[in-house]
């Protein structure tokens, strides 16, 4: 894939004047999309090069590949070593900054770079129509091409996670994946599954684990998050009440709380919004809960 002039120009701007200058509305966007990760473009850091620093040691310090640093810093494009006193742009993980071409959507960008559309969506803060996006998992190389970074190993292949958050199977109000919001008519990515249940219905842990979050969280409402062995995580949202505390070890089938209508539920009927996420170099990436729900 040939590197575009537009990408190199954008990287030059990023390095020269900083992301906050070319993206003045990021703070406003962050506030508007509650419950989503902070956009990768808002998480860049600056590294001031000191004596003894090399491209390799700087990359290792931030768990990045040298190619990623080269792509983000035009001063390194000719193979030069970073000069003492200079500042380098440090992204939160491997990837490149791309301007979405006029007339295209970020979903087309995801297809072009062979990145999961839902991952690209969340990495960029769940913005509907961003003009500049961070594409994770691809690296710029001096020969003018992009290469795919090694995919993070998935714990789901070696660790079995199976269970159900209710005592019996219920109807699905809204499945995982790209959906049309019944309230607004807009297309959006649904990171979990909505399971219909009456207010007050007990919600159970689908597997043993440790509670790492148990309180109100934006559009999720009352939210409980459990980390399980093998780098997997389950999330239970829109709860009416919470019966567990952070740090508590829970068993499969243990009560976590009750179904409620807190936050901003998508479906109008009372339900539990349930998610499964896998730990990766990009953070907690949403998985299809269907693969883990076993009544």
Short description:
Helix content is 18%, strand content 31%.
Write a structural description.
The chain has helices at 5-17, 19-22, 26-32, 55-61, 66-72, 106-112, 117-123; strands at residues 45-48, 87-90, 95-99, 132-136, 138-141, 145-148, 172-174, 177-180, 187-190, 193-196, 202-204, 209-216, 222-228, 232-242, 249-250, 255-259, 271-280, 283-287. The chain is α+β, with helices and mostly antiparallel strands. Strands 7, 10, 11, 12, 13, 14, 15, 16, 17 and 18 form a ten-stranded antiparallel beta sheet that branches. It has a two-stranded antiparallel sheet with strand order 1-2. It has a two-stranded antiparallel sheet with strand order 3-4. A hairpin with a 6-residue loop joins strand 8 and strand 9. It is elongated. 35% of the residues are buried.
């Amino acid at each position: 894939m040939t590197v575009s002039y537009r990408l190199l120009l954008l990287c030059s701007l990023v390095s020269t004047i900083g992301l906050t200058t070319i993206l003045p509305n990021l703070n406003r966007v962050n506030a508007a999309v509650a419950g989503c990760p902070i956009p990768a473009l808002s998480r860049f850091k600056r590294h001031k090069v000191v004596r003894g620093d090399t491209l390799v040691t700087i990359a290792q310090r931030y768990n990045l590949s040298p190619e990623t640093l080269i792509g983000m810093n035009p001063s390194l494009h000719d193979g030069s070593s970073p000069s003492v006193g200079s500042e380098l742009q440090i992204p939160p993980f491997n990837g490149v900054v791309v301007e979405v071409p006029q007339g295209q959507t970020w979903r087309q960008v995801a297809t072009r770079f062979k990145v999961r559309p839902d991952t690209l969506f969340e990495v960029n803060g769940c913005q509907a129509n961003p003009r500049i996006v961070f594409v994770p998992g691809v690296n710029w190389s001096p020969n003018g091409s992009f290469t795919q970074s090694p995919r993070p190993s998935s714990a789901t292949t070696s660790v079995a996670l199976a269970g159900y958050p209710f005592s019996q199977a219920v109807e699905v109000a809204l499945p995982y994946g790209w959906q049309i919001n019944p309230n607004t008519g807009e297309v959006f990515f649904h990171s979990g599954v909505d399971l219909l249940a009456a207010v007050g219905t007990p919600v159970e842990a689908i597997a043993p684990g440790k509670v790492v979050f148990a309180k109100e969280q934006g559009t999720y409402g009352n939210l409980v998050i459990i980390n399980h062995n093998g780098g997997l995580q389950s999330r239970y949202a829109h709860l009416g009440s919470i019966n567990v505390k952070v740090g508590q070890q829970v068993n499969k089938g243990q009560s976590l709380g009750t179904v409620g209508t807190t936050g901003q539920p998508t479906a109008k009927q009372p339900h539990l919004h349930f998610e499964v996420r896998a730990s990766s170099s990009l953070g907690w990436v949403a998985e299809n809960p269907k693969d883990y729900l076993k009544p």
